[in-house]
Design brief:
alpha/beta; 2 domains; 40% helix; para-aminobenzoyl-glutamate hydrolase activity; Xaa-Arg_dipeptidase
Amino acid sequence: MRQRQRMEMYEHPELGFQEVLASRLHTEFLERHGFTVTRQLCGFDTGYRGDFDTGKPGPHVAFLAEFDALPELGHGCGHNLVGACALGAGVALASVLGELGGSVTVYGAPAEETSGGKVDFVEAGQFSGVDLAILCHPGNHWSQSGASLALEPVQFEFFGRSAHAASAPEQGVNALDAALVTMTAVNALREHVRSDARIHGIVADGGRAANIVPDYTKVQYYVRATKKGYLTQLVERVKNCGRAGALATGCEVKITRFETAYDNMLTNETLSDLFGIVLKEHYGIEQEPPRETFGSTDLGNVSLVCPAIQPIFDITGDRSIAAHTREMAASTQTPYAADSMEKAACAMAMTAARVLADPACLKAVWEEFKSAEK
């Protein structure tokens, strides 16, 4: 059944917040397997959670599903497999909860590629009481869960006064100058930030005509860092660059967040190691160390409120096939990808089952989480 979902979602890719078919396939599957499903979670038409609880005391496990596609590329990030993995793991774990106790929830979060539905889930308290969370993501190799950067989108809007740029420039207040001063200051700041930080941006609106002093401009930046604490400091320094640009040119500035902010991914190494042990014992698969990445994911927000991992499973057998490509999308339909997906889903369930069966393991997972720098 999950293989049919994988294929049907590939044939009918849906963008973020439009995953109507995918959400229906997921929720109907969970209901057929005895899960209690809550639809339109956190106000999202396609968001959901499926709960299975025997009523016996024990830890609460969360498996996370994604299902949004990319414009023009379809499932070039393989989210049709992410969702199928979570469903399989959830049903497999539910089948042994009668012996182990505890509960399992499968969360379907929309729009990972854009606005990050998991962020809203976290802010709404959906992960309160969750003891561990696992998401498996396809790629071109098997690797351990790694890190991702915390991300803060910063937008500057500068307001000046228009004038004829040739006949009366002295009457104008140039909002483009404010943007240029800001960007110059940010460029200077880059020399003095930590090597694990990134600042990159664009002029989203630079004026309308060369003979008019611009009275409005808009600049957008992504500010990233490996730790949320350092990111907070860095964002304030970037904002000061915008304030300086406004002050220097006599403009007014409005500073806002133009997209959802993502926290850094905090991999729980205890849980990650256990997942690797399960993979090796049952399938003979050796995970590679995580690759250095400077991207961001909304799973980071989850990882700062409960122990979480995001291991990568190989669906290509070919390292030249990169994510966010048509080749990756096509790879999700191969027998090799289907087999890897089954192994990843089973490993998710078995990892969670071992934690449920071993209070000492759960304690170690949480001791690491509580002591980790966030």
